[in-house]
Amino acid sequence: MLERQPTPILACAGLLVCMANATAAETAQELYQHRCIGCHGSGIHTRMGCKVGSAEELETQVRRCELGLGLNWFDEDVAKVADYLNQNFYHFKH
């Protein structure tokens, strides 16, 4: 009689979970460098006529970009990137 071996199935399931959470493991700077700066360049944050005026608007804009590019970030990733941008470029008060 053949015995069932759940190990390969569990290993595959674990791998899928790890892949799905790969984005969560990236730092805000890594997310920004890998996903944002390629389209925008860093000059977008210092240009005249900035379209965001608060930390909340900045997070909303990061969410728009994330959705537009279909990045499937977690809410925490959006918040981390918005915080990173605010700390390094915008300096809005929370």
From TrEMBL:
Molecular function terms from GO: electron transfer activity; heme binding
- Could you say which residues form the signal peptide? 1-24
Does the UniProt entry include the keyword Chaperone?
no
What domain of life? Bacteria
Record key words, sorted: Signal
What is the official name of this protein in its record?
A: Cytochrome c domain-containing protein
